[in-house]
Design goal:
- It is found in: Cell membrane.
- InterPro entries: MFS_dom, MFS_sugar_transport-like, MFS_trans_sf, Sugar_transporter_CS.
- The protein is an alpha+beta fold and about 500 residues long.
- It has helices at about 10-35, 35-40, 50-65, 65-80, 80-100, 105-110, 110-140, 150-175, 180-185, 190-205, 210-220, 225-235, 235-270, 275-290, 290-305, 305-330, 405-425, 430-435, 445-460, 460-475, 485-505, and strands at about 345-350, 355-365, 370-380, 385, 395-405.
- It has a single domain (about 10-335, about 405-505), classed as Growth Hormone, Chain: A (Up-down Bundle), CATH 1.20.1250.20.
- About 70% of the residues lie in helices and about 10% in strands.
- Strands 1, 2, 3, 4 and 5 form a five-stranded antiparallel β-sheet that branches.
- The longest helix has about 35 residues, at about 235-270.
- The chain is globular, with a radius of gyration of 24 Å.
- The chain starts with 9 loop residues before the first helix and ends in a 9-residue tail after the last helix.
Length: about 500
């Protein structure tokens, strides 16, 4: 308990703020969690790799517009208040997410499908751009000075918990439905479920009061009339905005997305681990690691924000290639012993939407319990293999799925957990760090922009850029192609680490 401010009622504030923010992150991330499935629904199916990259690009688009949401809603939050602004973002996010689950597939409405999804994804990004800054500022302004790291770290858990909940809802839906039903319509259920959670959160949030610091500033006539001009037109404040972005938020963004989203994409699309197993092991690592957001938030009140955030970045920079090499080796069938007599090859024919494909399903089992299923699809035209105009060769798609034993699962949980620890180190203290850099009258706007540029632009583009680097390296015959995507987060985090270490001095840059 602090002498400066009572913590009575702060748990109610945190619960209401966290629940809404958690739901917004859930809404935002089910798109990424279902990227592999969505790529087959809203994009042309004749080129699976291009469809997946297009899905990642659409996913990234939601991140790219987050800074614009930060500017628009940040301005409103500094003028009319924190509470009403993030009420609006909650409803916008929930509505856009629900409608994504209702958009007809590419086969039904053609190119209108990806266009509608892109528009809805942009609305999601705008909403999240306004939500996080409001929630973090709201909790910080209810928190006792000297304890902001601890109390705001509860908001920091919501992004990871939202991802965890999205994985669990998807996993439950997959379990309750057959693979065919989930692929046909069941993938829409997690989008529909969000509208119920948004309604509950709305009922809780509408009874909240405005933050005491903002209410006091408003009563004294000290609120900003032009937050954008005061935040970015003022050279002195702009210096802190840029320092917050390049010295902290940019590095934090790539560490966050590497440890969670890139890890998930890597497991599914490079290591070919079965989706349910990926969701389960990632969920387990997130569940174990999430309490450390609060641990490092609390610790930042004791020893400072900078040292913890910089240490998290440095650990990621130095260890990512080793971690991902080790993860890849765990399921590499070249290092396992095949039970040759159990290998089967089953040919079959598939008809869909008037097209006929010839399938060749190869199943292999290994002595450690690993099972590999490889489905080669030969596209037929007039009874013969269709020819790819670009390569002049038969159009053949190969889909590989590995079901791995419990020992491998536990090993991968450990490697993901280690990455989650890096995430909690950089992300746990950053809300308090950003809030304390700026004065009350322009805080919502000033802290939201660097956060969402760092996370939305530098972090959000990571899956698409890294997947492109991996694909390009693979096409060029690089034997370690699966590690090339890591250069992006390593370079960005290194730049941020150097700037942060040289220029950030939290003792000089605090507005209490």
């Amino acid at each position: 308990m602090s002498n400066n401010k009572s913590t009575d009622g702060i748990w109610k504030v945190i619960s209401a703020s966290s629940l809404g923010t958690l739901i917004e992150w859930y809404d935002f991330y089910i798109f990424g969690s279902l990227a592999v499935v969505i790529s087959t629904k809203f994009f042309p199916s004749d080129n699976p790799t291009a469809a997946f990259l297009s899905t990642l690009a659409t996913f990234a688009a939601g991140f790219v517009v987050r800074p614009f949401g930060a500017l628009f809603f940040g301005r409103l939050g500094d003028i009319i208040g924190r509470k009403y602004t993030f009420m609006a973002t909650l409803l916008l996010m929930g509505g856009a997410t629900f409608v994504i689950g209702c958009v007809p597939s590419y086969e039904t409405i053609g190119f209108l499908a990806p266009f509608l999804v892109l528009i809805l994804r942009l609305l999601q990004g705008l909403a999240l751009g306004g939500e996080y800054g409001g929630a973090a500022t709201y909790v910080a302004e209810h928190s006792p000075v000297g304890e902001r790291g601890y109390w705001t770290s509860w908001i920091q858990t919501t992004a990871t918990v939202g991802l965890f909940v999205s994985l669990m809802v998807i996993l439950i839906t997959r379990t309750m439905l057959s693979p065919e039903s989930f692929d046909e319509w069941g993938w829409r259920v997690p989008f529909w479920v969000s509208i119920l959670m948004v309604f509950v959160s709305y009922l809780i949030r509408k009874n909240m009061h405005e933050s005491p610091e903002f209410a006091k500033a408003k009563a004294e006539g000290k609120t900003s009339k032009n937050p954008l001009k005061e935040s970015f037109g003022n050279t002195y404040n702009l210096k802190f905005v840029l320092l917050a972005l390049f010295g902290a938020a940019m590095g934090q963004g790539v560490i966050w997305y590497t440890g969670q989203f890139y890890a998930m994409s890597f497991l599914k699309t490079v290591m070919f681990v079965e989706s349910n197993q990926v969701d389960t092991l990632l969920g387990a690592a997130l569940l174990i690691g999430t309490p450390f957001f609060v641990v490092f938030g609390w610790l930042s009140d004791k020893i400072g924000r900078k040292s913890i955030m910089m240490a998290g970045m440095l650990l990621g920079i130095l260890s990512y290639r080793f971690i991902y090499q080790s993860m890849y080796d765990v399921t590499d069938v070249k290092k396992k012993t095949e039970i040759v007599e159990k290998t089967t090859l089953v040919p079959s024919i598939k008809e869909k939407a008037g097209k006929v494909d010839s399938l060749y399903t190869t199943t292999k089992e290994f002595t450690d319990g690993t099972k590999l299923v490889e489905v080669k699809t030969v596209h037929l035209k007039d009874g013969k293999a269709a020819i790819d105009e670009k390569t002049g060769k038969a159009k053949i798609d190969t889909k590989t799925t590995k079901t791995i034993p419990n020992g491998d699962i536990m090993t991968l949980v450990f490697f993901i957990f280690v990455q989650v620890i890096f995430v909690t180190m950089v992300y746990g203290p950053i809300a308090a760090f950003l809030v304390e850099m700026f004065p009350v009258n322009i805080r919502y706007t000033s802290m939201s922009l660097p956060y969402h540029v760092g996370n939305g632009i530098f972090g959000g583009l990571l899956p698409a850029i890294s997947t492109y680097l991996v694909t390009n390296a693979k096409n060029n015959g690089d034997p370690t192609f699966y590690l090339e995507g890591l250069w992006y987060p390593i370079i960005i985090a290194s730049i941020s680490f150097i700037i942060g270490m040289v220029y950030i001095n939290t003792k000089k840059n605090i507005h209490e």
